[in-house]
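Intended use. Records like the one below are meant for learning the mapping from a protein sequence to its folded structure. Do not use them to infer anything beyond what is encoded.
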Amino acid sequence: MKKQIRVIFQDVRGEISVELDDSHSPKTVQKIIKNLPIEVSIHRWGDELYTEKTQIAEEPENAKIKVNLFDVAYWPEGAALCLFFGPTPISKSGEILAYSPVNIVGKIIGHSTEEENFLNKISDGARVVFK
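Structure written out for the chain above:
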């Protein structure tokens, strides 16, 4: 099952589209959908944006540390949603590495250089709504 949602960055009046896909982590995706809308602050870690703790509580589900460009994930350790649009501080030789294992829940869709530049402008503590 795939479901498109919007991620609205309130402080900069911009948004991106995310396609949730339950093929990797079906229980996690269902919990995300059930809890929409999710309004939280977002933080930066290299070219990853991750939310503050959400109301979603899920165990690792096919969790992994190595992710792909534009993956969207749920981080069980922090109960947070993550948007990967480039390397993190621990990435090496072209790999994108999460801080600890994450459940892959979807992809940023329609990504372009414009969106990458937009995501690079998001500041730590910005308010965001997943809906």
